[in-house]
Write a structure and sequence with these properties.
Elements lengths: L8 H7 L3 E5 L5 H10 L5 E5 L11 H17 L4 E4 L2 H14 L4 E3 L1 H11 L4 E6 L1 H6 L1 H9 L4 E6 L3 H6 L6 H16 L4 E4 L8 H8 L4 E3 L2 H14 L12 E5 L3 H12 L6 E3 L5
Parallel strand pairs: 1-2, 1-3, 2-9, 3-4, 5-6, 5-7, 7-8, 9-10
Helix pairs in contact: 2-11, 3-4, 5-7, 9-10
Length: 280
């Protein structure tokens, strides 16, 4: 059930033909930001499922259900491309979403894994993510598709998501948690670290300081933006230059916290953040 008439005449023209992006909370804004930079003439609509985060401590079946519900909402708006900007949802439900909806769809794991395989020099790659993402071994499989000789060392870092949602991007508590999580990875000589959750780039400064300058950090935002641009170009779905772009935001809980944290990260006001109830 939708909260409000999202297909009203005022918004329908702008939302239809948009790039749809969803995540469990503010983390997917890291992906939205890069898509907006790479495609400055494209409208984008973002859904943050803030009422049901975090996804990382939920079962695969539950996360897949959430992914299908989020996708159904965005598809109902008439989007032309769907980005699952949530590593947990992509690892659990990408195949099901592609099967259910006739909209070009991508997740964040494969582009990120491809980049990590290219970046590593000593073939030791660390992966951090939610418990669910790490348990799925999705990154190991994706990285080994490019180079089966790479050693992948994976570690769940569940507290990073609530820290990011609180906006504690550069905080002493965040530093303590990062030290606790990442010291072992540094000791195993990884030279590349995959930020396997779209919330984690929000904490990139602290993570980088913890692992040191010799470890390359890889996140999904730029590779995903590149893939969206290339795919839309191949399908002749890119919009022309010179038009005003619209960014529209929906959340499933109170918009106030999302707006505050999102504005702090993006550096510009989030106008017209709307509440929607998508639970069945």
């Amino acid at each position: 059930m939708l909260s409000g008439n999202v297909r009203d005449k005022h918004h329908q023209i702008s939302i239809e033909g948009s790039i749809g992006v969803f995540d469990s909370g503010v983390g997917g804004l890291t992906v939205l930001r890069e898509i907006a930079r790479a495609l400055p003439d494209e409208d984008c609509v973002y859904l943050g499922d803030t009422a049901r985060l975090p996804y990382g401590n939920k079962s695969r079946g539950t996360v897949t259900k959430f992914a299908l519900q989020n996708s159904a909402f965005l598809v109902s708006l008439g989007i032309k491309f769907l980005v699952i900007a949530c590593n947990t949802a992509a690892s659990a439900g990408l195949a099901e979403v592609k099967e259910h909806f006739d909209v070009p769809t991508t997740g964040v794991i494969k582009p990120e894994a491809k980049r990590a395989a290219r970046v590593t020099k000593n073939k030791k790659v660390g992966v951090i993510g939610t418990r669910s993402t790490i348990a799925s071994a999705a990154y190991e499989r994706a990285i080994h598709e490019h180079d089966p000789g790479i050693t992948v060392i994976a570690k769940p870092c569940p507290l990073f998501v609530p820290l990011a949602e609180e906006g504690w991007f550069d905080d002493e508590v965040t530093r303590m948690v990062a030290e606790r999580y990442l010291t072992d990875l540094v000791g195993q000589d990884v030279d590349t670290l995959v930020l396997g959750c779209t919330h984690y780039p929000l904490l990139k400064k602290v993570i980088a300081e913890t692992v040191g300058r010799d470890v390359a950090l890889v996140d999904s935002a730029i590779p995903i933006a590149r893939e969206v641009r290339e795919t839309l170009g191949e399908m002749n779905l890119l919009r022309g230059n010179g038009r005003k772009r619209l960014l529209t935001y929906y959340v499933t809980d109170d918009p106030k916290i999302f707006t505050r944290v999102g504005e702090s990260f993006l550096g510009f006001p989030l106008e017209d953040v709307r509440h929607v109830d998508i639970a069945i």
